[in-house]
Amino acid sequence: MSKNYMSHILPWLKTAPGMSIAISIVVAVAATIDAGPYLLVNMVVTGGMLALVATGLTLMLGVLNIPMFAHGEYFMIGSLIAYYIFTPISEFILEHPESWLVTFGPFIAIIGALVGGAIAGAISEKLVFGPLRRRSTDNWVMNSFLLTVGLSVLLINLHQLIFGADFKGIVGYWQGMPISIADVYVSKDRVMAFIISAVIVALFYLFMTYTRTGMAIRAVSQDITGAEIVGIDIEKIVLLTIALACALAGVAGGSLLFMYPSYPTVGLEPLYMAWFVVILSGLGNILGAVTGAFIVALLKVITMEYVGAGWDFVVPSALIMFILIFKPSGIFGSDVRGVLDK
Amino acid sequence: MLLEVKNLNAGYGYLQILRDVSLHIDKGEYVGIVGPNGAGKSTTMKTIAGLLSPMSGKVVFNGEDITGLSASAVAKKGISFVSEEMNLFVNMSVQENLYMGAYTIKEKSLQNERLAFVFELFPRLAERRKQLAGTMSGGERKMLAIGRGMMSNPSLMLVDEPSFGLAPQLTTSVFASLEVLIKNGVTILLVEQNVTKTLAVTGRGYVLENGKIGLEGKSTDLAEDSYVKKVFLGV
Amino acid sequence: MDTIKNELQMNSFDRVLDKLCLTPIGLAGLILLLILPFIPPFNQEYILRWLIYCGFIAAMSVGFDFTAGYINIVNFGYMAVAGTGGYTSALLVINAGLSPWIAMVAGGVSSAILGLVIGMISLRLRGIFAACLSWFFGLAVMGLAVKMVWLTRGPLGLRVPRLFETESNFPFYFLIIILVYLTYLICKWVVRSKMGLAFQAIGQNMDAARTSGIDPVFYRVFNFTMSCAIAGVLGGFYAHFYGILTPDMMHTSKTVEVLAVAYIGGRGSLWGGAVVAFPFIFLMEIVRSTLSNLPGLNLVIYALVLILVMIYYPGGFSYFYDTHIRQPKNRALRYFLNGRDV
Questions:
Q1: A131 cis-preceded (ω within 30 degrees of 0)
Q2: Domain assignment present for B172
Q3: Which residues in chain A have Cβ-Cβ distances shorter than 8 Å to C260?
Q4: How close does chain B come to A225, measured CA to CA in Å?
Q5: Partner-chain residue, chosen from B70, B80, B87, that has the shortest CB–CB distance to A223
Q6: What is the pLDDT of residues C22-54, one digit of tens each?
Q7: Looking at the domain assignment, is residue A289 inside a domain?
Q8: N or C: which end of chain A has fewer CB within 10 A?
Q9: Which tens digit of pLDDT belongs to each residue from A246-288?
Q10: Do B93 and B64 belong to one domain?
């Protein structure tokens, strides 16, 4: 039996996904032994957040062919909404420490971020992407990309104009002692942030795999004419996809408000990182994006630990470029829709 | 009358392909459109299916004007289109493709009924239900496309070039499966380059040339027509 | 045949204009730019500073359009490439005591090398992924500039000797106008040669270009290298004009500025960006300085213009000009707008 397993695992290890996952695990374990378990905790929390943002990015690119440059701004919108919902709640909690809001207040803020992200995405589709699609789809990828660049600049500066450029952050969502996991004390917020992202990614995966609407989204990404002739309403699916993708970014911003206070350009870092993930893992599937998210998070955390803060753009981007030279379609990218210019 | 097309003009951009095409199909009929390459057969199909908007003219289905509706709206009215390129979802399994075919049906039980029916029709698809559509052979894909078209329980099926790119024995089996559909009471509008075969199986036919309907009539009469014989059959 | 006939019909003035890639209106515009600093209010030093910035963006947008408009690849790290040139030039002047003029050329060479590397690596990637790769490159280079404090003094910025030892901005203004024109002229010469056709063929359809015997490798890399060399020289100008160089210059948002001007001007025209930059950037500077209590408003306008142009007029100003202005009934006017080309 065990021999049977090995015969499956060994060839898998020689493939690009196997190799990169195995190397990542080894590196993660080694670094944890060397520097302490907090590194692993950081990686898991960052990875969870990145998985949310990167999945949305993959969705936009895979289904709608929009290389989204404004995705970080929905992260920003999510964090802004969570801030304005949670600030009054936390004042209320201060006065009524026994209220049920102590436990459930943060959820209201985070769900608000989710819904807000979805609405912002839907509005963008109605006002920006929809009009372009109806006008012309020539050179779509480039035109829509430039459109998202404009959208990004617009949203960042609207934030600055209306809410100012200062940091709008909170001390923390959940009060109380940190939770001890294997001798490391991890704040409740971090644990919850990871649980929330894990649950949402899992739900999203199930939604895409098993529900009628999720299948319709995949169908549109694979053959848009085929989707039309079986009666799928393309406009509706497009609207839903954008709303979903932006909701994922929004909830990431909301649940990480305690780490990333809201300010105009807060979305840039998650955006860069999510693009690293998408390029690294290729236009494969959701699972590829999630795995890639943890690999990139590991890279970032390790760089911060051993090279120093501020190098976390240099080292990962250099490494990703290096990988791209050998595997241009990304680690998990299928050859069907790779990034190669065939 | 199930479908009536009146004075249809259509094309791509400034290029007009169809000129005043009129045709009609009654319930339960098996109608073929034959004609040389580039005559506008596929354009006719795409316009009826809603993938192309006509420049002028009317498409009436079940007494309802469906001219210029989107393809998905047309599909919801009960017309299913099996395109020449098949447009399968290549990264989905056979079963998922079939379920997508039943997208316009909301009830799960009805979907499963249709699935059972299609599997009965094409046992080959049942064997391969877990396989990805992109990894199947040409003939199997054609069957899957037709099966997917059947899933929505359409009142009219538009089948475009089912024999395109298939080996002769596979062509025969695809035609046989269309035959079964007719026996089950489905109305079919078939477009084919294979004139002999089409006129042999269909009840009525249209000859399309240069975007215009040249001849129409019973398929047996058309097959005997001296002009058709000369131009298409080379006799 | 036709061209020979045209050459015969031209008088010597037309022939010179044609060699200089100018139309009579273009010449008039150039002369206007050259006498502009003598006309009040443009003779004031602070307004001249704005105009110099306009000129810098104009020249950058021409170099950017040389890649984006012809081989259809958005070099999203363009400002980082320019910054590399700027830093190289500044460091050579400071540490090696080179003349700024020679250092600027050296800056161009260093950027060209960077362009060569990016061009080689992104060679096999599809349009948008090549854009991402150049973006990552830009991020990495900017990260290096921030972190290599011993060399670049990091975010504190380098003090750089200026090109002219004078407080006045006049000589800088004339220099940048000459640079704008030279950039345009060189790019135009290249795209007017057989190479331009090859570029367009590659930009529109790589496979078709390859099957008709065009070697995409050579042309893509050549194009990339040349446009990066231009950016490097301009970066040197930027450094030696402002006298202070910070890594902020390489920020993606600066590239977005160049990109927006190039696209609003009209892709594939070369002159569109240069023409649009002067009024557009100038107006933005006015908005920024008069409404300084509303920070970000100028960028909001900026983004809105980009979005509207991308949706409703993706051809940009040059397309508008070609379709609506260029062919008037009056013969004299037509000559003025087109030169003798009929």
A1: no
A2: no
A3: 149-150, 153
A4: 6
A5: B87
A6: 787 888 888 888 888 788 787 787 888 888 899
A7: yes
A8: N
A9: 999 999 999 999 888 998 888 888 898 888 888 887 765 778 8
A10: no
